[in-house]
């Protein structure tokens, strides 16, 4: 099969997944496994498990990074780009349209928008419960999560969250390096990325992370400031797309780029579209600077994911067998739970649950999602209708 045919196949399959993959990162990984591994045999089970493990290890949108990695394995770097575009563009287009309607028709005060804000409460609460069960199974990690919650509630800045993640990683290294070193040795994997390219991508990743805040401080350009904010948020998200919420909220709401109501309305809308939750950044960019801003924000927040997956593939076996790295990651993941609990209270709960009817709707939506196991898009639709009728 020629490269062109391979790339067209990647585009076709990834676009179909981008149009139909509801349910968040875990569901996306299930869709990928069914389509790419079981049906098309693009990769064996072990290699897919290795790729998923790598993307869970890295900061950034895990499901998008797996999709990029699958594309790279199938069609090289261009294949990775095509796979990303196919999976991401449907939700990008939908959220740009939503942001444009919000700005053009002034619908931010509509009742159904309030319904979407309540959906955000339910979705984040559900995400926290699942993550807490997996990431804080013992009292030490529960304590790390509590530390992260208290600190991020009392000092609400983007830099506080960064500091909490770094401190939690150090504590995790101290507490869990012996436990991590006793884990069984993982099998060796082979990925088609040269170490030279890996070094370049990692150098570029850290270079931008260090250089962009400096450039932003000395520049009055709105675009440089936006690029810095989105790039930094995309670089520091451990634990899945929901964790990007508090980072982006601290970057854009206190600075007046958009209101808290606009922020939460967009987050609710992001639950209604398929594809990665990171496209919430598309909505923010479109509110701030039109459709050009939406595309720019999408590029900025996903760029770290590209650089990290391409940069770490050649070194994955060395990293995951290092007990120091594994121990630190256990602490980082625990802190993510605390940061999410903090975000659940503020801004989500404080801005969305104002009256008894709000809490009643939230309780019904939570049962629909958690106990009745209804698809997220159904929960979003019911939330919007309930907001239109009752709020």
UniProtKB/TrEMBL annotation:
GO terms for molecular function: chromate transmembrane transporter activity. It is a multi-pass membrane protein. It is found in: Cell membrane. The keyword Transferase does not apply. InterPro entries: Chr_Tranpt_l_chain, Chromate_transpt. One of its GO terms (cellular component) is plasma membrane. It holds the Pfam family Chromate_transp. The chain crosses the membrane at residues 77-102, 114-132, 144-176, 197-218, 269-289, 295-316, 328-348, 360-390. Belongs to the chromate ion transporter (CHR) (TC 2.A.51) family. Its main location: membrane. Keywords: Cell membrane, Membrane, Transmembrane, Transmembrane helix. This is Chromate transporter. It comes from Lysinibacillus telephonicus.
């Amino acid at each position: 099969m020629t490269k062109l045919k391979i790339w067209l196949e990647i585009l076709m399959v990834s676009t179909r997944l981008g149009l139909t993959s509801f349910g968040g990162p875990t569901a996306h990984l299930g869709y990928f496994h069914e389509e790419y591994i079981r049906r098309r045999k693009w990769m064996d089970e072990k290699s897919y498990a290795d790729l998923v493990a790598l993307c869970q290890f890295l900061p950034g949108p895990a499901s998008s990074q797996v999709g990029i990695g699958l594309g790279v394995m199938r069609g090289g770097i261009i294949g990775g780009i095509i796979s990303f575009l196919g999976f991401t563009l449907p939700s990008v287009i939908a959220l740009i349209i939503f942001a444009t309607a919000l700005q053009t028709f002034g619908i931010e005060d509509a009742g159904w928008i309030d319904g979407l804000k309540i959906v955000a409460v339910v979705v984040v609460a559900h995400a926290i419960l699942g993550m807490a069960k997996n990431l804080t199974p013992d009292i030490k990690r529960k304590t790390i999560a509590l530390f992260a919650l208290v600190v991020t509630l009392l000092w609400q800045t983007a830099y506080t969250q960064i500091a909490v993640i770094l401190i939690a990683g150090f504590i995790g290294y101290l507490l869990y390096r012996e436990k991590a070193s006793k884990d069984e040795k993982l099998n060796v994997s082979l990925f088609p990325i040269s170490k030279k390219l890996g070094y370049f991508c990692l150098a570029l990743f850290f270079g931008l992370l260090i250089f962009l805040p400096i450039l932003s401080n000395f520049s009055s350009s709105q675009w440089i400031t936006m690029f810095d904010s989105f790039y930094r948020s995309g670089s520091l998200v451990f634990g899945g797309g929901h964790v990007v919420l508090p980072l982006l909220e601290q970057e854009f709401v206190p600075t007046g780029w958009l209101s808290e109501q606009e922020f939460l309305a967009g987050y609710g809308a992001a639950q209604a579209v398929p594809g990665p939750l990171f496209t919430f950044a598309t909505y923010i960019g479109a509110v701030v600077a039109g459709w050009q801003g939406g595309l720019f924000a999408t590029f900025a927040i996903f760029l770290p994911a590209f650089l990290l997956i391409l940069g770490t593939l050649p070194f994955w076996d060395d990293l995951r067998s290092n007990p120091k790295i594994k121990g630190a990651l256990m602490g980082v993941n625990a802190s993510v739970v605390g940061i999410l609990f903090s975000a659940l209270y503020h801004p989500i709960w404080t801005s969305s649950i104002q009256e008894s009817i709000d809490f009643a709707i939230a309780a019904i939506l939570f049962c629909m999602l958690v106990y009745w196991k209804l698809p997220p898009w159904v929960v979003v639709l019911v939330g919007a209708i309930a907001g239109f009728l009752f709020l």
